[in-house]
């Protein structure tokens, strides 16, 4: 039985250790960042995190700064921070930040820093400006949002989508992490859309009773979809990084 567990779908031994991707900015992300900036602190417990719970942090903030518990939310955060603290008011956030290193919580003290999107992130670059062609996308799946999703799978970011000249394919300019990793062919699976059951009119109560009396359908055993095979063309690559400098001796 333990042998079978090692080879079941999703078992740790069957999964890669690391992966990466590119995610494009959305309007929701921009709105969320705007809402969070100035109202979120990351807290660290000085000297360790033993016996410090989110409820204790809420109580310490309320006692010291007189901020009601309903106006602050404390959640466990990813290391190296211990807690993420979200305030309803930016002034409360600033007041607590001013107590960094001095706010007592149980037998420990808390240090604070403001949250921003650079926290815990590493710097990266997309250095190859690439003209890319995609053949094989069906006509109903050529919208810009679909293209952005697909390019993210290729570690690319859309710059400009050109108007199509025919029904065969699309051309676009993208930022690419590494054009050498863009395959020549690609298989794309589109799950079928959900079937929404039409609502029963109040004018037909007999039909509503009939449907309500039927047993609930069994949960699906699979999600059906359609697969399309695409052909990818790299038509031009512009490497904007400066060339290496060689001295007079060639080194």
TrEMBL record:
This is DUF4283 domain-containing protein. It comes from Oryza meyeriana var. granulata. InterPro entries: Sex_diff_modulator. It comes from the Eukaryota.
């Amino acid at each position: 039985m333990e042998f079978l567990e090692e080879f079941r779908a999703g078992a740790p031994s069957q999964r890669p250790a690391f992966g990466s991707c590119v995610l494009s900015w959305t309007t929701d992300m921009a709105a969320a960042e705007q809402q969070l900036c100035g109202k979120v602190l990351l807290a660290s417990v000085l000297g360790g995190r033993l016996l410090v719970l989110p409820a204790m942090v809420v109580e310490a903030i309320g006692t010291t700064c007189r901020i009601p518990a309903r106006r602050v939310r404390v959640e466990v955060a990813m290391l190296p921070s211990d807690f993420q603290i979200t305030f309803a008011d930016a002034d409360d956030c600033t007041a607590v930040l001013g107590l960094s290193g001095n706010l007592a919580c149980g037998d420990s003290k808390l240090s604070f820093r403001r949250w921003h999107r650079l926290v815990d992130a590493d710097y990266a670059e997309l250095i190859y400006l690439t003209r890319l062609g995609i053949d094989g996308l069906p006509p109903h799946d050529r919208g810009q949002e679909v293209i952005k999703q697909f390019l993210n799978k290729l570690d690319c970011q859309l710059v400009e989508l050109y108007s199509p000249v025919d029904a065969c394919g699309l051309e676009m300019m993208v930022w690419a992490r590494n054009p050498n990793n863009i395959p020549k062919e690609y298989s794309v699976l589109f799950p079928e859309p959900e079937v929404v059951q039409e609502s029963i009119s109040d004018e037909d109560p007999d039909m509503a009773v009939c449907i309500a009396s039927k047993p609930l359908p069994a949960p699906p055993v699979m999600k059906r979809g359609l697969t399309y095979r695409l052909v990818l063309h790299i038509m031009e690559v512009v490497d904007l990084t400066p060339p290496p400098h060689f001295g007079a001796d060639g080194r």
